[in-house]
Design brief:
Two copies of one chain form a homodimer. With 207 residues, chain A is an alpha/beta fold. Chain A contains nine helices and nine strands. Chain A has two domains: 8-77, Arc Repressor Mutant, subunit A, CATH 1.10.10.10; 84-195, Rossmann fold. In chain A, helix 8 links the parallel strand 7 (146-149) and strand 8 (170-173).
């Protein structure tokens, strides 16, 4: 069977669907129509049905979606049906904030270790900070599914190269640079500076 | 003259243009063709010309763009031609990391104060942390152009309401919630959890 390519726009809506459905589930709501779900996301019902078609539909039109089932199917699609072992490279301000980021635990991401080229602290909220010189041996001895880059811009590409060289195939990048990675590596960037500049534009132009 | 509406996609590319042009300028490069600029951003040259058309074009086809002029025009469009006074609400992990975020200073955003409902520290890198009860009086006595929300999700909407009530019209939101704000307020969200879930999807599906 050929692998279906899901568009970037659909992928970016998946977390919004998941968050909405999780909220419904937390409130004890069992059924949701595509109309109501669409309204929660600020999109059209036809867009919801079209998006879900990519994954087999999730239920019958006219009956609404079963919230528990939808939540579970979305979780499986997004890989939230198992835990990930995560390491953070960079124990500066951003790295330390990420060490305490509750979203990790919530979605099954377990931060196992932090690394820094010049560690000035021993641990971040109980997560041990290793010297970056120990990175490869740590990854060799432990299962690591994902690495977070929280280094300055200048170090980010060489850190990415070491992460990839060690066999890790998933990178969450907080450094303000577009990293070059092979196709088989999954990467997602959080660009704080781009977001700040977009806000600056909106503020200046009153939009 | 009627105000031209710039599409969201173009607005989101502005920081990328700015970053590329700033890099060229830092390297002492004076001229850049739309082709070369397009390649830096991973888009087509015709997209670059079309984007720039929204702002009057920035130069003559066939001659390339003047880097210094382009940088200055982009800075003006994005409101980087003046400083902003910024306050951060929430002095937890994220707030503290933001207090030390160098991007602020780089683009003329001056973090003047932090607020917390229960301050456990006096200052973050020299930025004073006030009790949230002092928020309105601080904003009344000082010019504040922008507020950053770095609170837990549960507090974010009520904090947003207080920010808007105090007269601030620009919000950078780090809480994982879609805030309801009036049309005249500029808002930009950084959703760490959505980004993490997108990465989770990519990792699971090898894309």
């Amino acid at each position: 069977m050929q692998k279906k390519v899901i568009s970037e726009a659909v992928v970016k809506r998946l977390p919004k669907y998941y968050r909405a459905v999780k909220n419904l589930s937390d409130q004890g709501i069992n059924k949701i129509s595509s109309n109501a779900l669409a309204e929660m996301l600020g999109i059209t019902a036809s867009q919801v049905r079209q998006d879900f078609c990519n994954f087999g539909g999730f239920g019958q039109q006219g009956y609404g979606y079963d919230v528990a089932k939808l939540k579970q199917e979305l979780a499986t699609i997004m890989g939230l049906d198992h835990d990930y072992n995560v390491v953070i490279v960079g124990a500066g301000n951003i790295g330390r904030a990420l060490g305490g980021y509750q979203g990790f635990e919530k979605y099954g991401f377990k931060v196992r270790a932090m690394f820094d080229s010049n560690p000035v602290i021993d641990n971040v909220g109980g997560i041990k900070v290793y010297n970056m010189s120990q990175f490869e041996s740590y990854v060799k001895d432990n299962t690591v599914d994902m690495a977070v880059i929280a280094t300055p811009k200048a170090a980010a590409q060489s850190v990415a190269d070491r992460i990839i060289g060690s066999g890790i195939k998933s990178i969450w990048n907080f450094a303000p640079i577009d990293l070059e990675v092979p196709d088989y590596v999954s990467i997602e960037n959080i660009s704080m500076s781009e977001s700040l500049l977009v806000l600056s534009y909106r503020t200046k132009n009153n939009v």
